[in-house]
Design goal:
The complex is a heterodimer of chains A (185) and B (507).
Chain A lengths: L1 H24 L6 H9 L13 H10 L11 H12 L17 E5 L9 H5 L5 E2 L7 E2 L19 E5 L23
Antiparallel strand pairs in A: 1-4, 2-3
Chain B lengths: L27 E2 L6 E4 L9 E2 L6 E2 L4 E4 L8 E2 L4 E10 L7 E9 L18 H9 L27 E6 L8 H24 L3 E7 L3 H10 L6 E5 L8 H9 L14 E5 H13 L5 E8 L5 E6 L4 H7 L9 E4 L6 E2 L13 E5 L18 H5 L6 H9 L3 H6 L10 H5 L6 H83 L1
Parallel strand pairs in B: 1-14, 9-10, 9-12, 10-11, 13-17
Antiparallel strand pairs in B: 2-8, 3-5, 4-7, 5-6, 7-8, 13-14, 15-16, 15-17
Helix pairs in contact in B: 2-3, 2-5, 8-11
The chains are: A mainly alpha (185), B alpha/beta (507).
Amino acid sequence: MITAILVMIFLAVLLGLVLGYSAIKFKVDGDPMVARIDAILPQTQCGQCGYPGCKPYATAIAKGEADINQCPPGGDTGARALAELMGVEFKPLNEDHGIQKPKSVALIDEATCIGCTLCIQACPVDAILGAAKQMHTIIISECTGCELCLPPCPVDCISMEPVVENSESWKWKYPIYNIQKTQKA
Amino acid sequence: MQLKNIFKFNGGVHPNENKKISTRLPITKLPIPKKIVLPLRQHVGHVAKLKVKPGDHVLKGQMIAEADGNVSASIHAPTSGKVLKISEEIIPHPSGLADFCVTIKPDFKDTWIEKKPIPWKKLDSAQLIRALLQSGIVGLGGAVFPTHMKFKINQNQAINTLVINAAECEPFITCDDMFMRERADEIIQGTLISQTLLLAKECVIGIEDNKVEAYEALKKAAQGTSIQIKVVPTLYPSGDAKRLIYLLMGLEVPKEKRSIDLGIQVFNVATVAAIYRYLELGEPSISRVITITGTVKTPRNYEVLFGTPLSELISDAGGSSNKTKKFIMGGPMMGFDLPSIHVPVTKAMNCVIESSPELFPAPKPVMPCIRCARCADACPVSLQPQELYWFSKSSQLEKAKDYNLFDCIECGCCTYVCPSNIPLVQFYRYAKSEIISQDKAKEAADTARERNEFRLTRIEREKKERAERHAQKALGAQEQKANDEKKSTIAAAMERVKQTQQENIKN
């Protein structure tokens, strides 16, 4: 009887120590759910979801404050991935937040640009190069196509150019083929 | 010809060879065309950097675009003439899209730039790789991988065996066959040079048993050397580098490893000949042998300058004999339909087949997969094509990847044997390019996230710095104010003292 109690106490203490140690040693900083949601979001940083960026939106989803279908660049595919991660029912994209557009990048008409730096301040990923009273230009490889630089421009010299397929970015398409016609009985 | 010590790989198919129709006539040199269109992307890797501008006069063999970085290849003018324009032209690519090309108008004088043979025996490995980077030589078997990269020897693994790929297993294609029959000496010379450069202990040439004349020619040229010539059975796809290594040596290259990790390097016959021509004669890569076959009037092999419009080649081969105007680049197993006959000949173009409904009947209606697993029996890489098909078809890309989709060499054996006529390889190609593009998008998203986070920290930092500055300023102002107060108190006190003193004097 006493042996059994001692064994149980010993086990309890041992396991408690192990758990206590792992709680300190393997502590995860930050909410891992936010990071996992953030990994699905397209990182356009456009703010169309109503939050000031992808991470704040991810945090809001994790807290249950935001819905999974508020991200237009992610589209239905993104919403589906989020639904799977969160274990909730899939919802099509909420069009109040915008519609999914083909991937575009900003283009500055350099002849019209007056060098006011307003777009540089608006760009969430520092993809605009320029200085006061100097012509600005977009670093195409870094542009996420968020369109945040469009409204501040006082001379409307920025336009969105859809990214066209070239022989390097070209993809094989889903195969289309004929199937046998059914014969009437 | 004897089949000795051969290790048979799994699967493979033996379609109708159709090679004899294009080997009746010797290799012919096509006259200089009226215009030359050279795409800047003719190889695997980075696009070459342009070195000429419209209006420039270029000489034959002059470099017109330089390799950009290590994984890239240079491009040379195939004949002398004037650079007309740099523009986007349709290139021979399955996409049918346009890409940047240099158009040269030949002056028909064909003046060579000064040829500078490379003293390769005196160069060390790094110098040699730099020299070959200038040569424009890429793998001429069709993979167009920059050849200089293949001379980079792994520190831990010396090269034991140099394998020369002379298998040419795809039906219809005979450019390597004819090349071996007519220029076996060049191949053997190039092989010996490559073997010396790689410090390879032995060298094996692997050739299929349907190329008797080529075998004899090689054997004659290789007399007195240590080069072995091994005959492998005619079975598609024995010309795939890893399949050929297995056939010759019984060694399987593990997943995600390259043959170089096993101490084996593989070159195509035409590639080693190009290495010989560059190092010994100083001639960069400006032409290749190409098979034109199918329903053209006189199927044969041509030596063609890169950039020659395909239409000139077709008309020289007697023109097409049917009205379909459908041309396949590469073989019938792995090739693709050309978007137009006005595309230029490129380094990758080893064969062009004029197709006709009799030669290649329209695909039969596709029926459901009956799980017969004939594709698995035919797969030379021992994959499970039926599983890959289900996952690719339903876009379960992660699953397809787990089933080793990226080990698929797209040889087409599975499609060839499928009794339900399912275009299996098309599904794998779709799944592969979808995965690649998703990975790229993910990478771009990660960069965007990083840049956004950096920007936010920067803004935060700037805000803090500004606040500190303000605080300091405010502190300074307060001190000033305190000082001023003190001063005025002192001044007031002094004033009072003065007044008292004056009053005292008055009194």
